[in-house]
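hi!! sorry for the late reply, been swamped w classes. u asked for the two structures so here they r. pasted raw, havent cleaned anything up. first the sequence of the first protein and right below it the tokens
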Amino acid sequence: MPAPTGSDLTGDEIILEPDVQDFLAWLAVERGRSVNTLSAYRRDLLRYQAHLVHRHRSVVNAVDDDVIAFIHVLQGSGLAASSITRTLVAVRGLHRFLVAEEVRPHDPAADVEIPRVPRGLPKALTVDQVSSLIEAVGGDDRVARRDRAILETLYGTGARISELVGLSIGDIDLHDGLVRVMGKGAKERIVPLGRHAVTSIEAWLDPAGRGAMQPPRWARRGDAEAVFLNQRGGRLSRQGAWGVVRSRGAAVGLGEELTPHVLRHSCATHMLDHGADIRTVQELLGHASISTTQIYTKVSAERLLAVYRAAHPRASGV
């Protein structure tokens, strides 16, 4: 039977083997995986099982060559590298489970290397671009005050967009210039705000700013404590904050270049450019591993190299 193509691997007509169903149940009950994660695993394992059916195999008698062939099929199917990696993580997890449960003696995926997803360099704005972005938010109305405070806080703290919209009034200490941020995994960290961010937040929290956006009656519990509000007087959503950043970026010609994450990248990159210790930047951003932060050192090094080549008389070979 010919090798399956990418379109053959939908798994639409495949019923999950009992052992695969047991694995998914284990993920749900023992590991507490979310509904979305379980759904993704189910799709990926249906694809894998369809591949095995074409090779007259099952998850119980699959061998190393079956897993390797599956990688090749995935790579030829047009899937993104990140999707291929996610699928193979599911396959690996399944086979480890089957060995642990003594369903089969050998793990055919144990020695198969998962292709690495190329990590693109973070795209940082220049310091001048950040200044132009914030300074372009003109006016003193409530929306302008809010939007300036959002941009200053994202850039000044390196916070994620979800962390920003989750801020409550009690999280901010304007006197000492500190903010309490709840990061991934409900991990709390205290980070400095910076003078410009403090000034912009003070202006936003003034009666002419947030006070003017506050509704006569709060619609939802918790909105009253929200730092950032939408124009209906509710807590600003993640999508709403994205819209603020995108619209303000478009106004200064940044267009698709600007996202909330770009401001986070810019914060980290500019701090390293100006001599900050990598451990300090790791703590500021809330990275669990310093390896995540280290990618910014490469950004700074490449920027240094570009400036050197452009400015040094003997760098270009002219």
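now the second protein. again sequence first, tokens right under
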Amino acid sequence: MRGTARLCDVEKRTVMNILKLAGESCGRLLTEKIHNVKVQDCLELDEVWTYVGCHQKRLTPERVEKGMHGDAYTFICLKRSTKLVMAWHLGKRDRVNTEDFVSKIRWATGPGMFDVSTDGFQPYETAIDAGLYDRANHAAVVKLFSTVTQVVPESYRPARFVSVGKDAISGNPDLDRAGTSHVERKNGTLRQWCKRLTRLTYAFSRSWDSLRAALALHFAYYICAGFTDC
């Protein structure tokens, strides 16, 4: 944003205001365009973590008054066959926001049965059962990682993958095809394209509205650049 402000000879705040206006417009555009889409294969759901202002453990009432929010999760619904992002939602990782996310999926999808794969996040079970009861065969995919890690100074290593478990939560999902690998790959793309979500850097959002606008711009570009129907 500072680079754009210098090139255009405007204040940084002007760039931020344009970002928010464009993000709001992109959000409305995707809601209008992605509606009643026929799903014949599987939808994959996942969440991407980031934070606004400060980490959740450092969030105090004083910081809340300054506009900090702590943890923020981007819920993503990906259509496996075409990699189309059917819906996304920014919020806390709780029951209320999960239900709001599922309601967006219902708006985006058309009538008919399809499979839905999620991780083991418990609110998905009740939210999908209530919001997609007549459409979704729900399967939960839980990946297990080793809790024993070798500590190496000045290094960052994720836990070692051990196994994966699949359970039918509702309906009759095809467990052989259940998985969340595609949406997790999309999570990696999001972190690479949207700097405020990149891990292990100084980059983070200072404003919830700015984060929402940046995400709306990202998904609009991703969808409209990759899908000519938009």
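hope this helps!! also noticed smth abt the second:
The beta strands are 42-52, 70-79, 84-91, 114-118, 136-145, 161-170.
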